[in-house]
Backbone:
């Protein structure tokens, strides 16, 4: 991509206003907290202290709005306290330019490094540096600076108290995340009717898992319907894919395919009904047609083998989902409202290796009642401790420190960002101080707020900040000229602007920055500054800060494009370990000496997400990877998606503990693990990987050892996906040797369908 095209795309992205769900009650709560702080401070201490406390409350509210499933009051207090410390130290050194520049450099560098600990901490630290540049100009003495700092802490405490006293949709975000996951699977089931290898976006399932991380205290009050449905949803996903995939036995057309389409349509209806019930906290209302589809005895005579087992497991899992969503045993519900679909045929135990089974609230009820027809044997209660624990704020400190230490090297994008933003901030402050404009802090403030560790965000935010500043300043100035507000009216307008920013902050940077610009104009006007003293210099210095930020990234970049091969290699290695863990369980159904499938799957999913994020960033960068073209990257990603997808299909048919083992699967699992590790090393070194070990393991397979063709067929499809990966990466004109083998001699492809399905979506 050329620089001109990259700049055009980032400009369009920065000025875009997205349609998103607004949260007016949350915005109102933040605005009320800010108004209370401003009003009390004005009445007791005057405009200068009110402005400081308002900045503290403003930043604290933003901290509670970050991507968190439950607003953390601790974040508001931590934000207000850290801003208070920054302001006090900044005021003490502010009269000595060199000393203050040293403090500013240290503070900015630490804020840049804090992005290693996560976007929430990074944004809070960055905002503290930016706001400090303004607040240090407000006190007039050391005692006044201490008072201003104390009021900032009070502002954060007020916002924290409002979060506790007035919670908004206490479990609403969790309900939405889980309902979205079930609704996505319902849509997936319907699409599989027409496209047996239809792709599936894993984002809803990943989001639901993130929402499931809660503190032990929250676990005691979590609604029952949120306890176990996520685990069931993750287990349903591969069963749907295995039921529809022609590679595992269902012909593309015929009565078996027609029956599968009916089951998939009914599954979609059941999942949609469960999603609606969980989202709104209401009883499950199942369509009678869906219930009758699963209760008909015809399925057992039409489907045989792997499709038969997949249909059985699907019916049992859907029964569990409905039971969790309605909060009552399926046998006690009526067919027209909350009855659960019975499994279509005699069941196979639906345990999935690495899963903890149903939640305690459901497992206990199931263990105490007689199994329903077609449901299978009851499972024992799940022991406590299956909750995904979210650590408290203090527990995050060691992890954050470790992440920062890990990224503290010149090759790290975060360290390069810290050095870049520090240089720009110090340069901007020095330039703003020397220019005869006054209020020189606008330039470094704009720079530190727009700079991010990646190119596209930095450039898009720079455009959005300047455009939003122009709009916000123009609107606020016009209102000031028309209304001539006094101190209290200016404070009210500042609170209203902040509330509008809280409401629109999810819609894009342009709208949010316009509200922030108006907020600052009104807040400084509350202290008696005229618009002619702030508007021209704010616009000019904001432009200077944005230009400095964009120039710094062009001169000292941290491109994602050169790291694409490393991300691809990580995904290959993780997918290989996942596939090997699944295949190993066919050799040892008890799983005593096998890797945990669930752990391997989560690692593969993380690697896949890192690859996709890197690929998305690279698409907007004005550089080109000389060792991996865009087409090769797309083909390689598709091949790895197919590799993970086949492993997922094999996991959907994991044998029961009492099933006879398949000894040849052990050799295949070892070959997969070793070959993919070597292949990942080859990808990093710009060589083409080869898969002779996997092919040899399949060639040595004795067909008589496999009573079920699933694992043998799956191994063939795994080899095909690996060969497709090598084909995608084999762009060299001359042959290259990998492990002594000519890589231009391609492995034969096995027959079987393939598709763009993403793999690790559970």
Residues:
């Amino acid at each position: 991509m050329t620089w001109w095209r990259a700049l055009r795309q980032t400009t369009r992205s920065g000025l875009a206003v997205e349609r998103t769900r607004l949260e007016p009650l949350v915005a109102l709560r933040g605005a009320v907290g800010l108004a209370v702080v401003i009003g009390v401070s004005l009445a007791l201490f005057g405009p200068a202290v009110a402005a400081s406390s308002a900045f503290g409350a403003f930043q604290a509210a933003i901290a509670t709005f970050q991507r968190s499933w439950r607003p953390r009051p601790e974040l508001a207090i931590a934000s207000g306290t850290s801003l208070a410390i920054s302001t006090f130290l900044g005021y003490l050194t502010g009269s000595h330019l060199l000393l203050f520049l040293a403090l500013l450099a240290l503070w900015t560098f630490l804020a840049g490094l804090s992005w290693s600990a996560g976007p929430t901490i990074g944004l809070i630290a960055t905002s503290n540096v930016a706001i400090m540049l303004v607040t240090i100009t407000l006190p007039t003495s050391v005692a006044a600076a201490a008072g201003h700092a104390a009021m900032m802490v009070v502002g954060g405490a007020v916002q924290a108290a409002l979060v506790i006293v007035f919670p908004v949709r206490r479990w609403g975000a969790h309900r939405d995340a889980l309902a979205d996951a079930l609704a996505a699977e319902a849509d997936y089931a319907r699409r599989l009717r027409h496209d047996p290898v239809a792709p599936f976006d894993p984002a809803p399932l990943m989001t639901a898992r993130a929402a499931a991380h809660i503190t032990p205290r929250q676990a005691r009050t979590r609604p029952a319907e949120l306890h176990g449905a996520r685990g069931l949803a993750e287990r349903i996903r591969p069963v749907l894919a295995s039921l529809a995939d022609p590679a595992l036995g269902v012909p593309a057309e015929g009565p078996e395919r027609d029956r599968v389409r009916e089951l998939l349509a009914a599954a979609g209806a059941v999942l949609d009904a469960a999603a609606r019930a969980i989202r709104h906290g209401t009883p499950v209302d199942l369509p009678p047609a869906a219930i009758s589809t699963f209760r008909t005895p015809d399925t057992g005579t039409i489907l045989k083998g792997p499709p038969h087992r997949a249909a059985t497991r699907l019916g049992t899992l859907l029964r569990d989902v409905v039971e969790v969503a309605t909060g009552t045993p399926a046998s006690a519900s009526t067919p027209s409202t909350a009855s659960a679909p019975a499994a279509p045929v005699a069941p196979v135990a639906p345990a999935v290796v690495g899963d903890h089974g149903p939640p305690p609230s459901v497992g206990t009820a199931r263990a105490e009642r007689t199994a329903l027809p077609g449901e299978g044997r009851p499972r024992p209660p799940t022991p406590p401790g299956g909750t995904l624990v979210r650590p408290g704020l203090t527990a995050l400190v060691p992890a954050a420190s470790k992440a920062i230490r890990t990224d503290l090297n010149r090759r790290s994008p975060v360290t390069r960002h810290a050095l870049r933003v520090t240089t720009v901030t110090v340069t901007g402050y020095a330039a703003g101080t020397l220019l005869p404009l006054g209020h020189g802090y606008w330039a470094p403030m704009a720079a530190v707020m727009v700079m991010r560790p990646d190119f596209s965000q930095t450039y898009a935010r720079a455009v959005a900040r300047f455009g939003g500043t122009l709009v916000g300043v123009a609107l606020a100035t016009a209102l000031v000229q028309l209304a001539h507000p006094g101190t209290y009216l200016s404070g009210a307008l500042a609170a209203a602007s902040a509330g509008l920013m809280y409401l629109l902050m999810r819609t894009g940077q342009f709208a949010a920055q316009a509200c922030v610009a108006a907020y600052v104009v009104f807040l400084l006007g509350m202290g008696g500054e005229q618009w002619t003293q702030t508007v021209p210099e704010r616009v000019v210095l904001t432009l200077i800060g944005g230009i400095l930020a964009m120039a710094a990234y062009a001169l000292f970049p941290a491109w994602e494009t050169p790291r694409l091969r490393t991300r691809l290699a990580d995904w290959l290695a993780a997918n290989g370990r996942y596939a090997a863990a699944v295949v190993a369980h066919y050799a040892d159904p008890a799983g005593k000496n096998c890797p945990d499938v669930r752990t391997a799957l989560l690692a593969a999913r993380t690697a896949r997400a890192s690859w996709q994020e890197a690929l998305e960033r690279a698409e907007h960068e004005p550089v080109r990877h000389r060792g991996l073209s865009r087409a090769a990257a797309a083909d390689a990603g598709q091949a790895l998606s197919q590799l993970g997808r086949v492993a997922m299909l094999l996991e959907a048919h994991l044998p029961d503990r009492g099933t006879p083992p398949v000894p040849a699967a052990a050799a295949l699992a070892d070959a997969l693990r070793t070959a993919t590790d070597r292949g990942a090393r080859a990808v990093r070194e710009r060589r083409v990987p080869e898969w002779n070990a996997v092919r040899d393991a399949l060639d040595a397979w004795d067909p008589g050892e496999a009573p079920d063709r699933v694992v043998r067929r799956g191994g063939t499809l795994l080899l095909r996906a690996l060969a497709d990966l090598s084909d995608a990466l084999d762009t060299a004109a001359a042959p290259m040797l990998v492990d002594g083998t000519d890589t231009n001699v391609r492995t034969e492809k096995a027959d079987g369908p393939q598709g763009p399905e993403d793999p690790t979506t559970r």
